[in-house]
Amino acid sequence: MTPRTDPLTQEVVELIGAVVARYYEEYEAAAAEHALTGAQARVLGLLAREPVPMRRIAQTLKCEPSNITGIVDRLASRGLVERRTDPADRRVKLAAATDAGQETAARLRGSLSFAREPLAALSEAERTVLRDLLQRMLGDAPATG
Description:
By secondary structure, this protein is mainly α. The protein has 7 helices and 3 strands; from the N terminus they run ααβααββααα. Strands 1-3-2 form a 3-stranded antiparallel beta sheet. β2 and β3 form a beta hairpin. It is globular.
């Protein structure tokens, strides 16, 4: 595949980079307001959705399993996360957000205005197109609904 270097593609890539940089900047600041590092906040956000095996957390966040162990240990020491045995496979340990972790993750999500405010300026149809295009760029099938 020939790399695209036309001006429009370059502009789109730069805009995506600016969006990502701004998102991470706000995410880090919001995490700090909750006495979390950005990595801890990302792990907690993931675990607030559902209990996850430690190995899958590392795969999802593209980092070493030993890093995840340390992050989960620190979150557990604050009562935000706990380890559970996977009922489907007792050899597997799941990390799960506690009630306090769920509340912290919800407050963290609520304090992130960067994505919410610009997206609110788009119509539902525009947000749907944006979502579908992003999923296509990532190689994921568009979600329905």
